[in-house]
Amino acid sequence: MWTVIYIAPTSQQAERIRLRMTEEGFLVKVKKARGAKEQYEILIPESELDEAQDVLRDILHSSLS
Length: 65
What we know:
The protein has a 3-stranded antiparallel sheet with strand order 1-3-2. A hairpin with a 7-residue loop joins β2 and β3. The termini are far apart. The chain is an alpha+beta fold. The model has no long low-confidence stretch (mean pLDDT 93). Helix content is 45%, strand content 26%. This is Glutamate decarboxylase.
């Protein structure tokens, strides 16, 4: 089962996260979130959730620096 790990505010950020997560060996899907705003769901297999959260945290932290 796929689970949402993050909601990106832009398609560019969603694509950067997808690429970085894929480079780390995760299966990743991106889909447009429902609603009026331009938001994108980053999805990963539920079985990879714990590991993926750690990697995502590093990705988001490095993009803020």
